[in-house]
Write a structure and sequence with these properties.
328 residues, mainly alpha, 7% strand
Length: 328
């Protein structure tokens, strides 16, 4: 416990942590400002423009609607496979003549606000990785880690205390950033009376926030463990970017065709309680190869297990290397 308290004090006192906290809160507020701009009522110019579009649609339909319907029916008779069964050209070709269809979507907290929180979560995860890695790498590069080992030679205790401090720091940062973004989103939509939310939605948001905090703690742990392995923050960030660009996207997703095992899909599944990915299913027909886009769902449990397994592997590897490698 004493070592953990010391490492937490070191983590909290770092200037990068303070700036990262400012960044996390600032981005949440900026996302709220963007939602506020989206939720505002349409201006007089936008209403006038929408009314002009409706009038143009009506005039065009009055002049050419009969021909549009005839062309559709002729094409339907010649190519029935291109249309859904029971499709009615007279109804399907009818244009939208309501002004709301031509006005900017104002959104709501239940839709755009919650989606913005999910987008903000990935920024928080990236910051947690940076803090976890730099926390270890800075001491390794400066030689402070070597000095610390002269006071506490039991490396396993040092390793566990630093990893634990990174986990707690990453979790706190994510909690602060998520709460700031949540408050900004709610206020942005509440100002225009578009923040209505049910108790079920608030439960979902709270659960999502808890999962983001837990994942941020795990990501910070991975960053710290990689810091023990690679010793340089730039190297850790390079490995992270390379993994998502090459292994996640190119090898697992494309070459092996198994997106469900990628960290990106698993993270989506964990944060949102279910993730999705799509694959093209192609079959040979008389007209040639026909491909359909098939969507698959990944459960939150599956995503959590994949992320936990990857975290465990990196943490154990970092511990094994740190126990035996010269840190000088």
């Amino acid at each position: 416990m004493r070592l953990a308290r010391v490492e937490l004090d070191r983590f909290r006192s770092r200037r990068l942590v303070r700036w990262a906290t400012v960044l996390a809160v600032g981005v949440g507020i900026l996302l709220g400002a963007s939602s506020w701009w989206q939720a505002r009522p349409p201006s007089a110019a936008e209403v006038t423009q929408a009314q002009n579009f409706v009038r143009q649609q009506q005039e065009d339909w009055d002049a050419n609607g009969a021909q549009y319907i005839k062309d559709c029916e002729d094409d339907q008779a010649a190519n029935p496979s291109n249309y859904d069964p029971g499709y009615d050209c007279a109804t399907g070709m009818q244009p939208s003549l309501t002004i709301d269809d031509f006005l900017p979507s104002r959104g709501s907290f239940a839709e755009e606000g919650v989606a913005a929180l999910q987008a903000d979560a990935y920024l928080l995860l990236g910051v947690a990785l940076l803090l976890g890695a730099s926390f270890v790498c800075a001491e390794s590069v400066s030689g402070a880690l070597s000095t610390w080992l002269t006071f506490e030679p039991r490396r396993s205790r040092v390793y566990v205390s630093k990893v634990a401090a990174a986990a707690i720091g990453g979790a706190v940062l994510a909690a602060v950033g998520f709460l700031a973004a949540l408050a900004a989103q709610w206020v942005a939509f509440a100002l225009y009376d578009r923040a209505a939310a049910t108790g079920h939605l608030w439960t979902q948001v709270a659960a999502e926030g808890g999962r983001v905090v837990a994942l941020a703690a795990g990501v910070a742990v991975v960053g710290a463990a990689l810091g023990f392995l690679l010793r340089h923050t730039a190297a850790v960030l390079g490995v992270a970017v390379g993994w998502f660009a090459l292994v996640d996207a190119a090898i697992i997703r494309t070459a092996l065709g198994q997106p469900r095992w990628t960290l990106s899909v698993s993270s989506d599944a964990w944060i949102t309680a279910h993730g999705t990915y799509g694959v093209d299913k192609c079959t040979a027909t008389e007209q040639g190869m026909m491909c359909d886009y098939v969507e698959h769902v990944v459960s939150m449990t599956h995503g959590g297990l994949v992320l936990a397994a990857m975290t465990a592997v990196v943490v154990v590897l970092g511990w094994l290397v740190f126990r035996r490698r010269d840190v000088a």
